[in-house]
Amino acid sequence: MNNTQYKQRRAEFCKLMKKESFALLTSGFAPYKGKDQLHPFFVNRNFYYLTGLQRERFVLVLLNSEKSHYEFLFIEEPSDYATKWLGSRLTKAEASEISGINELNIFYMDSLDGFIANRILMDSRSSIVKQPRHLYLDLFREYLMKKPSSLIRFNHIIETYPELKIKDANPILDEQRRLKSSSEVEEIRKAIGYTNKGIQALQKTVKPGMNERQLEALFEYTIKMAGSSGVSFETISASGKNATILHYVDNNQEIKNNTLILNDLGALSNEYAADITRTYPANGKFTVRQKEIYSIVLHTNKEIIKMVKPGVTFKELNVKAYDLLAEGLIKLGKIKEKSELTKYYYHSIGHYLGLDVHDVGSNLKALEPGAIITVEPGLYIEEEAIGIRIEDDVLVTENGCINLSEEIIKEIDDIEAYMKK
Fold it and tell me: For the chain, how far is it from start to end, CA to CA, in angstroms?
């Protein structure tokens, strides 16, 4: 992905900001894991979307005026100590090459507060624009009833300049990110390709007696060997009754014979995510009962994908999926009324996919070309130790959709033939 896209995204964001405003967006940092360890760094997705940069503690400053917009970047200053202990820091030239921000507008972090005070918020000859009245921050709230981290990071500015009106940058960025460019689609295709290689390795290797964590480890190894930077979320490697738990991530039980394995997993490609679920038999052969339940989920998956097109809503997809799953279980005699389905199916049919696995975008809006969504019906029958979910990643096009993960096998005969030892 070249820096032209990042320039265009910043320009579009500024156009949608109020006049006489500025934005402060940070790349984030890795929180402490323990006394002497940090969690892996995970770049703020909005910051990455606007810059393409994946380094900690950077700050992007965007200004909007009546006639133009301005962009500045603040990065950590390279030092011998940091280089020796942590590796090379990005230079101004390198940050400029990646982001497309003019090198003359890239400064070191220790000058950020002075820059904001003297060149943005002070009415003087050195001011870049007319004194702004609005400050845009990423007000995403990580936890309910907890202050957004950006309010903590820039609290000293907010307290010093109480006349500033705080605005949330997310409504603008959510809309920008909802529909994907061709280069974004290509990154997700690559992520799906890595994921497919991982699933193939699992299906060729699995056998009763293995531990669920061995599949988790094999998946991560395979996708990294293929070129991915890693998993897009914690891998679900659930066998038997564990597969009836939606977000099962313990992955520590022995895999029994004649059970199903549900793998909900995904790889990354340049920070873009895949999100795929496949369910298959531990010994390579579905039982009659497993086939009955699996066929209902597979039929629903395929029918919902057929429905995906511009103008369709998530609500319509959810209603249809509910009906199909209920009808299937009624025919089997598992339930008598549609209302009973909630015992065996208790999640939505899908979500947006992109830089985040559960990506930004309103589910109340009708689908539009460029959106990528998941389609993931499932049935979870705890008393029979059967949990089945089949999930694909689908691109909405002008006239319908493309299943980006169609090469990842899901037909019963194809799975059994592939897994045949």
Answer: 41
Beta strand residue intervals within 342-413, DSSP E = 372-375, 378-381, 386-389, 392-396, 401-403
Which structural domain range is residue 9 located in? Answer: 3-176
Convert the pLDDT of each residue in 133-180 to its tens digit. 999 999 999 888 899 999 999 999 999 999 999 999 999 999 999 999
CATH number of domain containing 22 = 3.40.350.10
Spatial strand order in the sheet of 372-375: 372-375, 392-396, 401-403
Taking the whole predicted model, whether its pTM rises above 0.90 is answered as: yes
The CA-atom distances, in angstroms, between 62 and each of 104, 320, 376 are 15, 44, 39
376: nearest Cα among 260, 309, 298, 315: 298
Q: How far is CA 381 from the centre of its chain?
A: 28
> What is the rounded distance in angstroms from the CA atom of residue 344 to the CA atom of residue 364?
25
Encoded tokens for 282: 């531990």
Q: What's the CATH number where 368 sits? A: 3.90.230.10
